[in-house]
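Practice problem 4.
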């Protein structure tokens, strides 16, 4: 990646910030961004060099991305280096992560709504409305993932 590609650099940095907003480390997002705009897999060394971070950081965040099924690791016969590439469907993996976050929020709201059972007033209504909103969001994303061919 050269300085002649400022749009690519901005995309990679933006993806890092977006991933961070979703609770992932920024470097994991930057790795995803770089892998998205790179044809084929990249070695750990190449990722570290391009992103100007340590190999250890790439390895740690690579394990995280693999555990989330966003990336996969492989080796080449006769080559001792490890390579990373995005999984076949990183979009679905990211959406599935979002569904888990939505469910967690919905469950927290539901717990508080249940604590207000039997009470009347705006607070209880607000909690009910918020829970319904999260229920609808979870259902729609699950439906999208299902039609996309990704089961949760």
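Answer key:
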């Amino acid at each position: 990646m050269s300085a002649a590609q400022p749009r690519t650099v901005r995309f990679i940095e933006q993806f890092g910030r977006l991933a961070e907003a979703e609770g992932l480390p920024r470097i994991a997002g930057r790795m995803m961004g770089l892998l998205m705009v790179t044809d084929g897999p990249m070695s750990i060394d190449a990722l570290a060099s391009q992103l100007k971070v340590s190999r250890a950081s790439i390895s740690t965040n690579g394990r995280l991305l693999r555990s989330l099924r966003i990336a996969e690791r492989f080796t080449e016969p006769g080559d001792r280096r490890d390579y990373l590439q995005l999984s076949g469907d990183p979009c679905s993996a990211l959406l599935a992560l979002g569904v888990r976050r939505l469910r967690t929020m919905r469950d927290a709201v539901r717990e508080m709504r249940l604590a207000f059972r039997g009470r009347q007033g705006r607070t209880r209504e607000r909690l009910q409305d918020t829970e319904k909103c999260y229920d609808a969001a979870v259902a729609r994303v699950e439906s999208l993932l299902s039609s996309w061919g990704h089961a949760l």
